[in-house]
Amino acid sequence: MPTVPLAGRRLPARTRAAHAPGRRASLFVLPLLGFLTACGGPDHPGARHAVEAFTQAVAKDPGTACRLLSERARTTLESDEEAPCEAAITGVGLPDAAPVEKVDVYGGDARVITGSDVLFLARFPEGWKVMAAGCKPQGSDQPHDCLVAGG
Question: Which residue from 41, 29, 43, 47 is spatially nearest to 145, judged by alpha carbons?
Fold first, then answer.
C-alpha cells in the first residue's frame, strides 16, 4: 500500500483514479487519524491562515494556490490531470471557499475543517502546505476521499 509522508511520518494511504469523459480526476484516501481528533493540539493560526489563503486562491489566483500545495501534492495533481498545476487546480472541482470551522494540530500535521471541505496540511520549513484538499469523510473510522493529494 502506498504511503503519504506527513511531517516525517509515513502514513498508509490508498490512491485510486476516477475517470470522467475528457479528464482524469485523482481521488486520494487519507486515513482519519485518531491522534488528530483525540490528541490534537489547540487551533494553530498558521494552519488556519494557510487554508484560508489556499481556498480563496483556488478560484482567484491559481498560481498562489499551487504554491500553497506541498511539492508532492502539486506534482501528483499535475500528473493525474495531465496539465500544469494552475489549470489542474481550477479544473479538479475543489469546493468553494468557506469559513474555517475547526483546526486540529498534532506536531507538524493539521486537519482543517471548513464549511465545505476537509484539508490536511503539514508544516515545512517555509510554512504550512496543503497535502490534501477536497476531502470527504467516509465514516467515523474510514479514510477520507480527496480530490487533490500528495500520496
Answer: 29
Rounded Cα distance between 61 and 122, Å, is: 22
Please, which contacts does 8-12 make with residues 24 or more away whose CB atoms are closer than 8 Å? 8/108, 9/109
Q: Helix (H, G, I), strand (E, B), or coil: what is residue 121?
A: strand
DSSP symbols for 6-36: ETTEEEE-EEEEEEETTEEEEEEEE---HHH
Cβ-Cβ contacts under 8 Å for 103 (sequence gap 6 or more) = 43, 44, 47, 48, 51, 110, 111, 112, 113
Nine-digit cell string for 61: 489566483
> pLDDT tens for residues 11-70?
333 333 333 333 333 344 444 333 333 344 455 789 999 999 999 999 999 999 999 999
